[in-house]
Amino acid sequence: MKIQCPECQAAFKVDETQSPENGCQGTCKKCGARFRIPPPTVDAVPAPGGDLAELEATLRELLAADDQDAAAEVFLEMITDCARSGEFANAEKLHARMYDETPMALNATIAAGEAIEALKSGSIDPEHLARWDGIYAELTQEEAILLSFALQDSAYPADATVFKQGDVDGRLFLVEAGTLKMVCADSAAEEDTIIQEIQAGDVFGADHFFFFSVCTYSAIVVTECRLKCLDKSYRFKWMEAQPKLEHQLQSFCNTREKTSDLIAQQNIERRMGESRSSKVKATIEMIAADEAATEWTRSVRFSEVSPGGACLELKLNKQIEAEALLGEVFKLSFKLEVGGVTKPVKMTARVVAINFMPFGGCEMHIQFTKALSEKAVALF
Q1: What is the dotted CATH code of the domain comprising 150-265?
Q2: pTM for this predicted structure
């Protein structure tokens, strides 16, 4: 398959057989940008069975005879059958094929698209629509269909962990049934602190869905629950293609109390030791899975440092690049003055959050692989 670097738009070919099922991180060979390579896709419609197989045979004959009008009618019947059976992915693939193979039958092609949308709309669970009326009420039919079919169902038993503090999980979760608790580790306490308990009709994960951060708390199931989850990739798609939908989602989440705000209110201590400001310049270099150096490097500057981590100032041009960096480990190289002598320092750290600044540039929050002593922090 073909992929394109989001930074410099360089195009590359990737062997789909070598791409993991869930996708992976890649590095542009031209500019060194890090970005996510999507999982392999299969564009072909699976071989139809039963009546669809007969329709496919008829369709091929009509296409061979260049009878586009008749072929379009067969396409329309196949697409409608798939959509009525809930096989919307296959219906969409047939619709795309219809555009390519019967370009002159425009009315039938439009009718096929309308049939898919109408059947999608009718298949949305009315209880789901009622429960999340605060989201759907302001959406058009097209936007409502996009959202409902992007949401994935998942179920968790009691005591299961949806995600752990420190995980890279940018999904947004809508609670259909059951209860959960949001738990945060407190370095000043003997045990983890329960920040918030949520139930059906609540959302969680917005802190990690709308912003660039590893999970700042754990989500643990209290009673068996059913969830609808939305992958963060949809947010990037909708920011340009469906801005109203993305805005409506964020507005709805803003009406709910954020777990990150509750953590701040309870003064939970998550930082190891005192921090201090710094202006030390450094270079960061990403580490590949096999621990070999990659071509991705950046010049950065420390703005704050503590025993457990630091805040770095750097430039990133794309939000998709920031998302790809979350959770990654890199080498950090800089120099410090020790006893009047300048010494090179090398260490490793993990990216835990990235904040884009209003007037350009961004802040990268990192966690050191090995904590520094208070004496070492004083050298910055």
Answers
A1: 2.60.120.10
A2: 0.69
